[in-house]
Amino acid sequence: MMETFEGLTAVVTGGGSGIGRALAHMAASLGMRVVIADIQQDALDDAAAELAASGARVLKVRTDTSRAEDVELLASSVRATFGVPHLLFNNAGVAAGGLIWETAPSTWKWVLGVNLLGVAYGVHHFVPMMLEQASRQPGFEARIINTASMAGLLNPPNMGVYSASKHAVVSMTETLAHDLALVTDRVRAHVLCPYFVATGIVESERNRPGEKLAPTHSELVSRSMSDKAVRGSRITADEVARSVFDAIRAERFYVFSHPQALESVRVRFDDILTGHNPTDPYLERPQVWDALREAIRAPQSAGVVR
Residue 7, exposed/middle/buried by CB under 10 A (0-12, 13-18, 19+)? Predict the structure, then answer.
């Protein structure tokens, strides 16, 4: 059981902002050495400087988690600087939405590249060194915490590509937990499923590589609706970070920022078990469904959920 973190090492992808930055600060406050990785250089520099100013030992590595070679370099840099890490937060993520048939192939490639393959690459390059260390060093323990989303357990409309990526992360992490249990009891996994949290994820397009596509009407609606939900959230990234470390201490696999949203998950699973057609995800909040439908059907120049 991992109860204290003093002197250990944490790696955080997407550590330049949002939940990742909060996780990095939480780790530092607990006396950990912190490695932050991010694709956005200015955010990475700022976060690293902030952590260093607090007295933490910090390594920053610019990383595009959708590139296997970048994650491999991150892993080798961590090992060379601080040794084998004890906590790996596969946290980097981007958001995109819109009607699923309007989602461009380049958007699928981008979202799945960061949200899904970034996690897969992190697992591939870090877990073997953790297992090796656990076999050599009595008492060594490590944890892999993959950031999914409540969208990995639900299927709200107009969010198909994002939900698909996050469902895959939940599935991957559950499988990872089982696979690890086959070979060790000292390296374990957790999955973080935040709901709407006050972060800048709605602005993910700022770091999208390649040519920027003109957004479709449904994509604009998705951004507007997500922005409204995120800005209205009462849950902060710092609160999420605290709940993650509490879950690590308690050996609790699933980590939720909004446990009340699990009622919608129960309804979905009941539909599956009973063969019921998918229930309207906004059944208890018809005003949200009405606003979304109105915006989707509005003239193409509208696209804002009010």
Answer: exposed
pTM greater than 0.85 = yes
Beta strand 58-62 with 87-90 is unpaired
φ/ψ of 303, rounded to 5, equals 75, 25
Question: Hey, what CATH class is 9-216+234-259 in?
Answer: alpha beta
- Concerning whether 162 is annotated as a catalytic residue, the answer is yes
Kindly report the length of the chain: 306
Q: Which residue shows structure tokens 């208890």?
A: 284
User: Closest by alpha carbon to 206, among 92, 94, 44?
Assistant: 94
pLDDT the model gives residue 306 = 45
Q: What is the mean pLDDT of residues 28-39?
A: 98
Catalytic, out of 162, 195, 254, 282: 162
280: Cβ–Cβ under 8 A, 6 or more apart, which residues?
289
Burial of 96 (0-12, 13-18, 19+ CB in 10 A): buried
Backbone phi and psi for residue 36, each to the nearest 5 degrees, phi listed first: -115, 135
268: Cα separation from own chain's centroid: 22
CA dihedral 13, 16, 22, 27 (to 10 degrees): 60
Euclidean distance between CA atoms 147 and 247, whole angstroms:
13
- Cβ(161)–Cβ(103) below 8 Å: yes
